[in-house]
Amino acid sequence: MDADVCISGGGPAGVMLGLLLARQGVEVVVVEKHADFFRDFRGDTVHPSTLNLIDALGLRSRFDAIPHDPLPRLDAVINGIRLHAIDLSSLPRPNDFLTLMPQWDLLALLAEAGAEHPSFRLRMGVEAAGVLHERGRVAGIRTTDGEDMRAALTVAADGRDSTVRRALGLTPRSYGVPIDVLWFRLPRPTEPLPDTLLWANENGLLVTIPRPGYLQCGLLIPKSGFARVQADGLEAFRRRITTITPRLAGPVTELASLDDVKLLSVQVDRLEHWWRPGALCIGDAAHAMSPVFGVGINYAIQDAVAAAQRVGPALRDRFARDHAVDRACAAVQRRRELPTAAMQRLQRGVHGAIATGALARVVDNPPTRGQRAALRSILPALLPLAARMIGYGFRPERIR
Ligand SMILES: Cc1cc2nc3c(=O)[nH]c(=O)nc-3n(C[C@H](O)[C@H](O)[C@H](O)COP(=O)(O)OP(=O)(O)OC[C@H]3O[C@@H](n4cnc5c(N)ncnc54)[C@H](O)[C@@H]3O)c2cc1C
């Protein structure tokens, strides 16, 4: 054996699992195909559930030393009516906010913490090409350079297009998604803007993520609609942004070209079987998450915690290790499948509301009497529930 556990993918799921296993003394190797963590398109929300884990790992002071933007509240502006849609200040302190931290910084922090354990190895620039089989079990990975790495457990944490998952012969069930996202940056408006996540009206829906120094924007478009946007040209794109968010009329003129607008394909899928003898899928490799509610990173990390707590002890079984590892993998799926399915169900509901325009009709401008009464009575009751759902997800994990 080259390691007890070989993990393909150095994203949030893979690096967190590597760290947690190394803390238990498990020999673990994480292979990441890129030479660095620098990637722009994966979101960078760190939710209260992950902040709680950072605290439990004793990494808080190092986390706080990295520049990040704590956001206790985020508004939604629907038809010009500003709603205080997300308010995490009702959650228990100290982690009663979500924060935006570039994902490469978070991954670097976790990797650094992992490297303090002698049994942790992270190999950057190494790509899994397939899996090894021995005695009817998965026995490690083969890299694109032809290197074999043998392990008692192989973990696919290599994202929604997972190579290892494919090599295991596992295919996720795909749920149709009617939307894609166009991803671009704008300068912040000169007049300060309250932290606003979402702008919606009959012209479309725009997400704005306040990052230090600029706004990361995501315009939702119908699936496969990017060719149409490109054909209509830059001026039409700018006009569209301005009609959805008049306050961005100035900043959007600084968008120089549609080449600065990237298409991010939204996908929601889930495996029926998350494991095979000797192998386990976690994170997006087991269930691709939509960006709705920005919970994908946190769900990937929660999978890692659930896996580490079951697989770590199983690896210590001296007499029936293979059997114990497989039982642990099955237990990980049992633990994480339901919270994942529930969140994906909600995400798909929101996709439907976006695609049919129902979201933009939630409130008129000016609101009708019924809407005003509903906003006054229902919204305050819903806010704490929404805060828990977004902040922790369903069935949050704790590090024992
Ligand atoms: C448009 C968009 C916006 C999003 N925004 C947010 C957000 O704001 N907040 C949020 O929480 N979630 C967001 N998500 C979801 C989130 O990106 C994912 O759910 C999350 O990154 C999953 O983590 P992971 O570790 O499972 O996989 P990934 O983050 O995809 O990491 C997989 C890693 O494996 C590596 N890899 C791939 N193949 C191989 C291989 N063969 N060998 C070795 N390494 C390999 C990749 O380079 C990558 O580093 C968004 C998703 C989309 C599509």
From TrEMBL:
Residue span(s) of domain FAD-binding: 2-317
SUPFAM superfamilies (alphabetical): FAD/NAD(P)-binding domain (SSF51905)
Entry keyword Ribonucleoprotein: no
UniProt keyword annotations, A-Z: Oxidoreductase
Superkingdom field: Bacteria
Keyword NADP carried by entry: no
Family matches, as PANTHER family: 3-(3-HYDROXY-PHENYL)PROPIONATE/3-HYDROXYCINNAMIC ACID HYDROXYLASE, FAD-DEPENDENT MONOOXYGENASE
Protein name, UniProt field: FAD-dependent oxidoreductase
